[in-house]
Design brief:
mainly alpha; globular
């Protein structure tokens, strides 16, 4: 019986602050935990992806002789490299950056079509292509990194 009372006195908090800490730790199990916004969308990585895809779009368009396809290839290569370097899943950021850069580039690159009314559907199609290619490049880069870093 003496061992039982010693055990009970050891588990009880001795001060008011310890009592408060133990109460909050007991109640913390029942509080819903909202995901942090940076887990869902990281603004720093988005800015990095935005600048990277913008550079890739222009360099790809300038170096490769395929016109708009070269630009999209440059965007895909940058997304691939970001996939190799990134630590987490950042598909939302890379997809949004690819869509934004590709869509705005198509809209500004075809101002005459925009004035006539055909530029907006072209920009939407280009944004969709940029979104898909950026995510595909990022996925392949992450998958390649995972294959090289996984232990056999």
């Amino acid at each position: 019986m003496a061992e039982r009372t010693d055990e009970l006195t050891r588990t009880r908090p001795t001060s008011a602050s310890q009592q408060e800490e133990s109460d909050t730790s007991r109640l913390s199990r029942f509080r819903p935990r909202a995901p942090r916004l940076t887990r869902l969308f990281d603004p720093k990585f988005f800015l990095l992806a935005l600048v990277g895809t913008l550079v890739g779009l222009f360099v790809g368009g300038a170096v490769l002789p395929f016109g708009p396809l070269g630009s999209l290839a440059g965007l895909t290569v940058v997304a691939f490299v970001l996939g190799l370097l990134a630590d987490g899943r950042r598909y939302l950021e890379i997809g949004a950056a690819g869509a934004l850069v590709s869509g705005v580039s198509a809209l500004l690159g075809n101002l005459l079509l925009t004035a006539v009314g055909l530029g907006v559907p072209l920009a939407v199609f280009s944004a969709g292509a940029g979104f898909g290619l950026a995510i595909a490049g990022f996925y392949v880069g992450r998958d390649l990194k995972d294959g090289f870093t996984r232990e056999l």
